[in-house]
Amino acid sequence: CARAPMYDFQEELVIRPLHSGDIYASFQFRTVWDADFMGDQKVSHYRLFPKSLGQVITKFSVRELHISFTQGYWRTMQWGQPYLPSPPGAELWVWFQDTVTDVDGTWKELTNVLSGIFCASLNFIDSTNTVQPSASFKPLGIGNVTDHSFLRYATLPREIVCTENLTPWKKLLPCGSKAGLSVLLKSEKLFHSTFHSQAVHVRPVCQDPQCRTTSMELRQTLNVVFDLHTSGQGKREWSLFKMFSRTLTEACPLASSSKVYVDVTDNPQVRPFELSPATPLLTQAVVLGDRRTYSVYDLTQQASFGSSRSLNMLLRWKAADGEMLRPLLHSERYVAGYGLQAGEIHTLIYNHHPYRAFPVLLLSAVPWYLRLYIHTLTVSSKGKDNRPSYIHYQPSKDRERPHLLEMLLQLPPNSVTEVTVEFERALLKWTEYTPDPNHGFYVGSSVISALVPSVVAMDTNSTLDRPLFSSFFPCKEEASYFMRVYTEPLLVNLPTPDFSMPYNVICLTCTVVAVGYGSLYNLLTRTFQVDEPSPGLAKRIANVIRRFRGVPLL
Amino acid sequence: MGLLSDPNRRRALIGMLTRLNAPICMICYMAGVAWFMGLAFEPFTLRTYMSENAMGSTMVEERFPAGERALATGREFAAHKKKTGGMPVDWLVRTMQARGLEVYTQRFSRKLPFPDEDKERYMVKGTNVYGILRAPRAPRTEALVLSAPCSPGNENNQAVGILLGLAQYFRSQIYWAKDIIFLVNEHDLIGMQAWLEGYHHTNTTGMDWSPLQGRGGSIQAALSLELSSDVVTSLDLVLEGLNGQLPNLDLANLFYAFCQKIGVLCTTQGKLPRNDWDTTSGYSHAVQTMMLMVLKQASSRPWGDHGLFLRYHIEAASIKGVNSFRPYKTDATTVGRLLEGMYRKLNNLLERLHQSYFFYLMPSLTRFVSIGYYMPAFGLLALILLLRALDLWVQLSSPPTRTTEDACPPLCPLSAPQPASPGVLSILTPLVISHLTGVALYTLPVLSQELAVEHFPVSETEAVVLTAIAIYTAGLALPHNTHRLLAGEGTEQGWKVLKLVAVLYLAVLLGCTALINFSLVFPERGLLVGVNDPGLTLLFAVFFFQELQETPVTLQEGWMLYLSVISQGILDHALYGSLLYPLAALLVYPCWLLFWNILFWK
Predict the structure, then answer these.
(1) Which Pfam family, an example, fits this chain (chain A) (predicted)?
(2) Which chain B residues contact residue A492 at CB under 8 A?
(3) What's the predicted TM-score (pTM) here?
(4) Residue B345: in which H helix or E strand, if any?
(5) What DSSP letter does each residue of B496-523 carry, written as one string?
(6) Closest partner CB to A73 (pick from B139, B312, B410)
(7) Could you give the ipTM of this predicted complex?
(8) First-to-last CA distance in chain A?
């Protein structure tokens, strides 16, 4: 062994007051381990890195793993963009290393193991809901892999996320829920919210600037939105205690950095809210294409806690503020039509940018029991036909694999692009219905991946605190940024038999067979002949006597 | 079949059926009517019960406190409505937003085929406003709807007030699992039609509407609230929807359960459930309630704003507040608590309402008759037609062969009759002509209104109705002239073939109608008697309906009502896709013309 593996652990909490009066809290815990999982050396000594995950990654030769559990739908129009988007339910996507020969088998085993680790029904992932996206999900870590046969993507839109998923997630943290930011993660508050999402991302990152060796990075994130009316009693006033019913008293001792950021971007000019205790530390960053200002509380500094030895930030709105900046990209999806035979899936993608068109990748995986009529696929923007420049379509196979449709679309500025496709509802075999068939069947969220022109680059007229020579070409820092938007999942009713019917059906079938078939068979096989009129009484008596005598009858 | 394959026994059976045809028919008819009337007799009906587990055992608490504040909001709404002279869109949007809802509006416009004189509208333009309460931690897949109409004048202000009050109260609760859509629709059913078509992105009636911006997934249930007074004495439940569709019976059960729990008087068809079934008045009360339901269902029109939801397989009902002279009053808080309770239980639903019956009649709110019990009544009536047809068939096939009976093999009587060429021709012509008259009755009234207005001193509406009546009456004169053109004029054979076809036609028609809208069969049954024509049946139904509602009308008023019913029927078809008018014009009327033809054959 050349040198002991190095560990690094950082924890971070970002609080963003939203324009609707709600508040968004996003936790990130990052563990980096300078160990090469991909090499052939055997790793057996784990310190900060959770052993359960590490072993899984080694055993199944996973290059990248992204898993998220979400309860609720991110309301882009009210809340803006999340730091880490995720679809309702569970989502799992994995890049395997190119040494894996049987990808499908490994994927199957991996989902079952993860199902155990996260106490979730990931074992319901099988070939009928797994797809291999060709363009939408590129590796986020280093490595230039293009062969998407090593990628598997699946969502379970019906997955309910609750405390039993939170506990195993917290166990992966070096400090558990004992110290640092994670003391705030109390389930009775986290699940008294309007949105809850937790995720685990594992990816290889560069160890040094020359990128000679790689490290494994584990990011655990948890996003939660508290509602103004249900959690905040309608008062535009938030504190750590009100949100989590806990305050911060210390950093995690194992963490190299432990910080709390509060988004105060709108504060300096308009001052819609005040923040106490105030902190002298401010930092600026371009996040999601927008230049934001953050107040920073460094928990490793004793000064952050003040005299009361606990940190409880308080945000108080002074006035209900006006309009928020409309998000540049958002989407909507619904099922049109009525009746249980056919239907139409409409996906609307809004580009709110006033003058820039930009391309998006739309991915939708539709279960096989909605039979898509792909010839009815239409894409239109502003009333005109909008031809996708790239289409990847994989038709479904009944009971084997879902439809996969990926398209590269150009969204004209300030427009709505509508993608519609008709479908027919299949009649399932009676054992294939779920125990609650009248609830309907879920279709997972579509994924829209886009490079969105950044808001910073949008104001070409602003010379605000920047030298003139730096601002002529619109191509500035982060001219566009990557963004992923998930649409709503769909709930579709399929034709459902009345399950109390089998008894009636059996009775009816038996009756039909007995009466209908029986008598028809009888009619067809019987030979008809003209019957002699019955002989008279005298003749019959004579015949009886003749039979006794043994002579032929009359 | 074993019976039939024996020629002797078959002959005996057929002989008996033809010999006793008239008595058997009489018995069937009596039995059918008696069976139907017996449905209202309490010992023969079942008590309603909650079938859906998710709504039955789960207890909910009703805590809605703010009835007075809701009424104040209602008054504010009324003031703004008066000021804007229509839907106060801006005020509603602001108020809903202040209550923490996601608010959207939808504009729509519709030009009616001819002016609606009852509601005084022709070019309809309006706006629907709806706010969505997003359920916490729910992925926008399921929704419930609560709607209140924005009516002209002083009506339904309290309904909008309670809707907004409930929205505010519901918003601060954490337990919602389905999005709740609060909808205020303008121009009652037209607005509702526009909203539903927009929500499901369909267009069945050619209306113009702007697309909806926000949705809540698949709608599981809807309630429509109509309330025009601060206090109510009772709440009336309206179930009958478009084309006689009914919501799942569990929705009625849910309403009844909460009325019992909270202690509100509740009615259906405006009639309280009574306990004295063994008295004559108690029985006739039940019969009245049931007949009202049958007539309303037969009219095929939506009897409340909920009626249009049913097409989209959304269980829906209207709740109407009634303020009569009874001393015991219920305040708005109690009505709010009732709705809160119902929504909390609907929120608990794991599946769509499907456990209970979809086809039923209600002789009172606590009793119901399911499809299995009322269908035999129809079966007995349909049997008469088949017996008559059999009789005619035998008559047609046997007389020429009777003289040569010995030469004929036993299978002969049931083999097809020698195709009498004049017979076939003679029935084809009346068939075609009566259907053409039907098509004329269906298309001409609306098409020719301008022409009629030009030449006669009538309004458009009158023109349409009077044209319809004119074509209808003109049709009566046809048979006197048509059959003279034919070769097989006046033959006994031709007459019988025509009658056979007409009887079978009617049997098929009744059978199909019974499957779509059972209640329609009973007015149609009038045709059985032969001379009873559809127009008279409708007239009779109008008077009967008024009688049942305990608002008898004079002959003059009845006639005016009759005219407006015809125009409403045509409008319902054009606006919402009600099937009664095309059914009557294209199928029932031609069928009846055939009988009329038979009557004047010779």
Answers:
(1) Gpi16
(2) 218
(3) 0.89
(4) helix B332-347
(5) HHHHHHHHHHHHHHHHHHHHH-GGGHHH
(6) B139
(7) 0.87
(8) 119
